[in-house]
């Protein structure tokens, strides 16, 4: 496991408005992403990100890079944390994983939220 911050995700009510706001504010570029409802993949000068809709008023999610998402998720559970569903369990396709990588949201043993991210193979 490597553990460095590797990806962020922003939840907004309306992804198009979010794209206009953050694109203007930070100069980020956007392309259609894997999220239903018009989400985006975000390119920044630093780490990559994503944006999804129907999630107004939330805090951004931070994902930590891991080499093996399944093994890292098992370790989270072993340490007393919880895993809130692996992406493929939520219906994400192999094509999406090949393009964007694999993600899962977790909570530590005290209930604090964080994410795990396994980059696409060969990335």
N- and C-termini, Cα separation: 16 Å
| Helix proportion | 10-25%
Structural class: alpha+beta
Backbone shape: globular
Task: State the total count of DSSP E strands.
Answer: 8
Strand content: 25-35%
Average predicted local confidence, pLDDT: 88
Largest sheet: 8 strands, mixed
The string of secondary-structure elements, in order, is: EHEEEEHEHEE
List segments where confidence is low: pLDDT < 50 over at least 5 consecutive residues: none
What does this structure look like?
The chain has 123 residues and is of the alpha+beta class. 24% of the residues lie in helices and 33% in strands. The protein has 3 helices and 8 strands, in the order E-H-E-E-E-E-H-E-H-E-E. Strands 2-3-4-1-5-8-7-6 form an 8-stranded mixed sheet.
List the keywords.
8 strands; about 35% strand; about 120 residues; 8-stranded mixed beta sheet; single chain; alpha+beta
Could you give a quick summary of the protein structure above?
It contains 3 helices and 8 strands.
């Amino acid at each position: 496991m490597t553990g460095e911050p590797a990806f962020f995700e922003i939840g907004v009510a309306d992804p198009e408005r979010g794209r206009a706001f953050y694109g203007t504010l930070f100069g980020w570029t956007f392309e259609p992403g894997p999220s239903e409802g018009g989400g985006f993949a975000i390119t920044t000068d630093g780490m990559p990100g994503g944006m999804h809709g129907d999630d107004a008023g939330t805090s951004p999610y931070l994902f930590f890079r891991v080499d093996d998402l399944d093994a890292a998720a098992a370790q989270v559970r072993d340490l007393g944390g919880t895993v809130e569903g692996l992406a493929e369990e939520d219906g994400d396709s192999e094509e999406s994983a090949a393009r964007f990588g694999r993600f899962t949201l977790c909570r530590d043993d005290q209930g604090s939220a964080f994410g795990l991210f396994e980059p696409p193979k060969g990335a």
